[in-house]
Structure formats: C-alpha cells, structure tokens
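A reminder before we start the practical. When you read a complex entry, don't treat the lines as separate problems. The point of joint prediction is that each chain is placed relative to the others, so the output describes one connected object in space. Small molecules and nucleic acid strands, if listed, are placed in the same frame. In the example below there are four entries. Take a minute to note the order of the lines before looking further.
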Amino acid sequence: MFKALANPHRLALFQRLLTCCAPGMACDPDEERHHVGQLGEGLEIAPSTLSHHLKELNRAGLVQMQRRGKHVECWVEPATLEALTAFLSGKT
Amino acid sequence: MFKALANPHRLALFQRLLTCCAPGMACDPDEERHHVGQLGEGLEIAPSTLSHHLKELNRAGLVQMQRRGKHVECWVEPATLEALTAFLSGKT
DNA sequence: TATACATTTCGAAACATGTCGAAGTGTAGA
DNA sequence: TCTACACTTCGACATGTTTCGAAATGTATA
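Here is the predicted structure of the whole assembly.
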C-alpha cells in the first residue's frame, strides 16, 4: 500500500478520490462516481500511464474499480484505509 | 513519507520503532531507546545499507535520530504520524 | 594517544519503476 | 455493422532505487 502511494501521480489520484467525498460513495447521491479519465484531468500524463497507475492502486487494494458503460468508475476501499490507520497507530 | 515507507526494510525498521513502545519514548523509563545497530538485527542487510535506510526515514520526518555516545538513538516522530493519519481521514 | 566499536559517506553495479506511443479490447449509438 | 470514445496491454527506453564494500568519521576506553 505504501508503495502504491509513494508515487506523486498516484498519490494525487488517491487524494482526489479521498477528499471529494466519503470513501466508497459518490460525492452526491444523484451524481456519478469518479471515472478514470476524469481523475487524470490536469495531471498531464498519457492515458496509458494513468491506466497503469490506477491499476497499481487497485492491486494494492486502495481503490476499487468497476466498468459502467463506457466509463470505469473508481472509489476508495474503506477497509483498506482502516487497515492503514490501524498500522500507524501501532495496532499491528 | 509514503515513499520512505514503500521499502520493505524501511517499513520493518519503522514498525519496530512503532510497535515496541509509545512514539518518542523509551520502551521502559529505565531502558534506553533503540539505536541503529539494534534496529538492523535480524534484517540481514549491510551496516551501510541500514544507515542509508534510517537516513531516508529521517529525511521523511518519520524518525528522529540523535547521537548518544557510541550509539545513535532512533525514535518515531509523533507529529508526523498524526499528519499521516489526518491525510488518510481526508482532512487535507 | 592508540585501539576498538558504531555509524556514515561514497561510488559502482544490479534491479525496479515511470513514461510514452502504438496497437488492442470493450461499449454505446448512428 | 461501422464509427467514435474510453480505457487497457505491450514493448521499449530513461530514470530512480537498493545494495554492497571500502574508506572515512565520531566516540569511548585502555
């Protein structure tokens, strides 16, 4: 997990998912969740690179992904977040 | 900080400092704090590598270091730990 | 001061990661 | 079925990281 967050681009992507709304939820009940292309906006990386980074975040268990039509939705996995904070509080 | 914790050896070192006792304190009032050589025990890495890793943890603000005679004491910086958990709870 | 011990600095080799473009897959809509 | 869009996979190259041994520094003690 730490390895996944060690890259500036991946950390930026994760932070977007983290700060916009509650983990696992859409920002608004009516709104859609974030999708891949949207997360990459303003980051100035190629789509293939973006895809690679989100795959790493997914592999680490930090981010969940699911196809919905043309887009692929992304959201933070709350359980993994809890595991991380538990580690940092010494409850290993 | 995430970059510093992304390496297995550094994570192991950090975890030793984290789980043994309260951050910034000795395990026991009478005991000494951890020192560099002690932290590397069982990790099977060269002293120069050990030194390099602790330097990285120090650079990231996760670990404090201070020379005390022949040894160099190490302990976890509590403020940095708090900053990390704050980030993970979305309070950025 | 000479010696032993603990740790750091430096340079080099092996290995891992980040990045892209080109080509591929999956999906919606004409 | 054809086209456009969203994303992924692959292969290649540049860059960054890990690791070590040799040599240097710092500290206590004989």
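Discuss with your neighbour: Chain A touches chain B through 15 residues (CB under 8 Å). What might explain this?
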